[in-house]
Amino acid sequence: MVEPAPEDGPVQVRIEYRIRTGVDDNFVDAMEEVRLIRLRDGAFRWELFCDPADPRRYVETYEVASWAEHLRQHERATVADQEVESRALACQEPGKSPVVEHLVSARFLSASTSKSE
Asked: By the 8 A CB rule, do 59 and 16 touch?
């Protein structure tokens, strides 16, 4: 893995959740509050998707302008933000953790993180 340069971006963050049966409404409600947090902290696009082929699978995606902006999001988390995220995570299937991916725009990836031939 190569650490992106601070100016690399935009960055798309994808988080896949496995939700217990019967808590969909609770999860979606909590994620609506997560949406507000992400947008407040610099995201310019946010969405929550549900897989129709696997209704327990939800994917949150959001985009921020740069890798530095994404790292700042981690620093901005308040106790109240952590409580909201905990409510969403409480809906996870037991023993499952969210799977997080970070994608950086290939068009604006700095030369230091590009693959060499």
From this structure: yes
- Encode 39-75: b = buried (16+ Cβ within 10 Å), e = exposed: eebbbeebebeeeeeeebebbbbbbbebbebbeebee
User: For the chain, how are helix, strand and coil distributed in percent, rounded to 5?
Assistant: 40, 30, 35
Say which amino acid occupies 61.
T
Q: Report pLDDT digits (tens) over 93-117.
A: 999 999 999 999 887 666 554 444 4
Angle between helices 24-40 and 79-89 (to 10 degrees): 150
**Which pTM does this prediction carry?**
0.87
3-state secondary structure of 100: strand
